[in-house]
Write a structure and sequence with these properties.
It is found in: Cell membrane; Cellular thylakoid membrane; Membrane. This is ATP synthase subunit a. The chain is 68% helix and 3% strand. It has 249 residues and is mainly alpha-helical. It has one domain. Strands 1-2 form a two-stranded antiparallel sheet. Strand 1 and strand 2 form a beta hairpin. It is globular and about 60 Å long.
């Protein structure tokens, strides 16, 4: 009986240690990280840096090519941030929200357009960084730190009055809200990108010629929308921290 109980406990622990999916793991000191996420993230960052350098290397009065495209992207981001934060507050936050939008947009489209699975790794496979929950949680936590920083910088310790206004009874709800914001941001982005890639992969396996193409086109559209939603919500949270809880614009 004791032997049977020991085997049961051993099996329980073994099952608890199983992971879903394989990852290309790197050891950095005492930390284990997903190498495939770092590789594709560096590629995305490299693409953005190359595009930025190409657009600013020889600036023309009448823009064309990459310069015209990057100026259009900058104008789009500036309008997005201005609509969320208002004319007076938006300028310092254009780089942060713009970086979030561009990184997520290029990551999503890279995952949808580039056949990463053709590049073989010792374990795991390359995919969009936003296909990994660790990436989306990191982006959501950065957003949380940004709106805490915005509120604290503008109001000092008075920022924390929002947790007890209009009554201290709402304190638990206000604290819970700060936890649900990054959770909703991270799981929304992760869930949509993962679902899109899984649907395309299944359709390519079942009907490899024409059926997946409309789904892939729809995936590109939803990928762009997810980047826009994430950046818009980040701006809205920062605006809420700057203006106060429940204040009107």
């Amino acid at each position: 009986m004791e032997l049977l109980g020991s085997l049961t406990i051993l099996n329980t622990f073994t099952l608890a240690e199983l992971e879903v999916g394989e990852h290309f793991l790197w050891k950095i000191g005492n930390y284990t990280v997903h190498g495939q996420v770092f590789i594709v993230s560096w590629i995305v960052i490299g693409v953005l840096l190359i595009a930025s350098l190409a657009a600013t290397r020889n600036v023309q009065t009448v823009p064309g090519g990459v310069q015209n495209f990057m100026e259009y992207a900058l104008e789009f981001i500036r309008d997005l941030v201005k609509n969320q934060l208002g004319e007076k507050e938006y300028r310092p936050w254009v780089p942060f929200i713009g970086t979030l939008f561009l990184f997520i947009f290029v990551s999503n489209w890279g995952g949808a357009l580039i056949p990463w699975k053709l590049i073989e790794l010792p374990s795991g496979e390359l995919a969009a960084p936003t296909n990994d929950i660790n990436t989306t949680v990191a982006l959501a936590l950065l957003t949380s730190l940004a709106y805490f920083y915005a509120g604290f910088k503008k109001k000092g310790l008075g920022y924390f009055k929002k947790y007890i206004e209009p009554t201290p009874i709402l304190l638990p709800i206000a604290v819970l809200e700060d936890f649900t914001k990054p959770l909703s941001l991270s799981f929304r982005l992760f869930g949509n990108i993962l679902a899109d890639e899984l649907v395309v992969a299944v359709l390519v396996l079942l009907v490899p010629l024409f059926v997946p193409l409309p789904v892939m086109a729809l995936g590109l559209f939803t990928s762009a929308i997810q980047a826009l939603v994430f950046a818009t919500l980040a701006g809205a949270y920062i605006h809420e921290a700057l203006e106060g809880h429940g204040e009107e614009e």
